[in-house]
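#onboarding

Welcome to the new folks! Below is a worked example of what a typical request in this channel looks like: someone posts a single protein sequence, and someone else replies with the predicted structure as tokens. Don't worry about understanding the tokens yet, we'll cover that in week two.

Example request:
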Amino acid sequence: MATSESVSETAEFEVENIGGIDSTQVSIPPGVTVLTGKNATNRTSFLQSIMAAMGSNQATLKGDAEEGRVQLDLQSETYERTLTRAGDSVAFDGKGYLDDPEVADLFAFLLETNEARQSVARGDDLREIIMRPVDIEDIKNRIRELEEQKDNINDELATIEDRKTDIPELEQRRQQIKDQIQDKEDELEAKEAEIDESNQDVESSREEQEELEAKLDELRSTRSELESTRRQIEAQNESISSLKQERSDLEDELEDLPETLMGDHQHLETEIEQLREKRQTLNSQISDLQSLIQYNEERLEDEDYEVLETLDDTDQSESNGSPTDELLGNGDESVTCWTCGSTVERDQIEDTVERLQERRQDLVQELNDVKSDLEDLKSTQREAKQQQTQREQIERKLADIDDELESRETQLDSLKSQREELTDDVESLESDVDDLESDDFEEVLSLHKEANQLEFEIDSLESDLEDVSEEIEDIEDMLDRADNLRDERDELLEQLTDERTKIDQIEADAVEEFNEHMDAMLEILDYENLDRIWIERVEQTVREGRQKVDKTVFDLHIVRTTENGAAYEDTVEHLSESEREVTGLIFALAGYLVHDLYETVPFMLLDSLEAIDSNRIAQLVEYFEDYAEYLVVALLPEDAQALDDSVNRVTAI
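Example response:
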């Protein structure tokens, strides 16, 4: 993704067949640029072109064109996107400035239909909108990974601490073995001295003596090899027993897991996708219905009964007849219906608006149910994936254990055969030695056997000494590693703290940004008797599926004062259109700042500010100017006049 840091050059746009634009070239320097003109002068179309160049798909193709394009030249780079008609939709292609424009669509491109901007007026879940770009599941997975790494380190440190306590005993054992070796060597030295003395008294041929000594040496070596083989057999038996126990434990664990493969859970993905589509449809219906309700309430409140040229398509789909047929009831005051121009009673329209509000509440409830079902299915799917992964890991371990068991049992069979051969060799050598015995050699032979046994015992003790020394060295190496492990664990704990508090920190930062900038904006714009608009983070217990969970929500508070100075809390419904627009824009700005879009998205776009008076628009633009490298605003000529003359103006598109 490109970054917007230190962007200081003019952005050059070439646009063809986007929105209402045939073809145009526009230069946008850093700072504020005002697109000024009457309605239907392609100001919004050019803003859509900027969005398309950034990578957004929220742009329309000119009605009589099959293909459109936008090219952006910025910082010696060229970004080009094409729009191609594909049936009832438009296909986008090419490289945009942003790899992922989703967050920018939500918090930087603040056109009239922008969801974050309209969220306050529609009564949307403000916390959900702020947290939407945050991959909460990814954070949870990262926390699980860090927890697993931390647990592994703790297990290793616990093992090291356990082994550390073994060192005194092992040191004592090593010294005992050294003492035993010294005793045996002293005894062997004495025995060899006896042999030398006995040899001087024995009258025998040198050849016979050498043959006997050779047989005794061979016997000692063979006995030593036999003892080593027996130890290897014992070690293999212990390993095989341990592997069989591990296999039994894994098989028990495997039996507790369901046998359903992930392929059999395909229906979960299908159901999840269906619920997502239903959620999207309900969101759209609720949004359209809220716009319709809001419009009618404003007409009733302002007593503005001008006939409109069009009515929202959603209302048409909810009714079986004309909008006038929908606005029926009883009342005393006659008014002109602003949907078709016929005369109806005012109470009839109010009753219909009330029924539309009830319908919206029903849709909201249905949407909540869909969200709950969707979360349940996602949870079931995650659990199924985890179980499948666990089953595959266990099956791989079992396969590895079976392979190792087969290998060790083959080695065991070979060792047993070797043991039998060595046993036969020992018996044969002992027989040879017996054959060489004579009365004259009986004493010296006995001495040789004793010396042979001492040498064998010394070899065995030296082997034990080597094993104990290696074990001590291993533990000392582990102790040296312990400090590194503790440092690694401290780093993991810091990462865990960051991940665990990330969601909470984003929520807190968003509330702080909104409250700070809302206070500043209200002080600048000076709305009559409007003291403060602020968000409070509160914990609520809500039902998700069959469970109740604690969930953070953003509570929007509005404080006004009466003529005599008494403060009271008001509701969003009582905000003027200008106040609602400003509140929505500041909420979008909070999202822009908390997600650091100023680092990655060079453009912020503003459109449809007519509900705000000219002087306040100028103050609002001046305030927003500090947070975006390029601030592009579409204004009517009379509103643009209130801005400073130094502001860049584009009058023809």
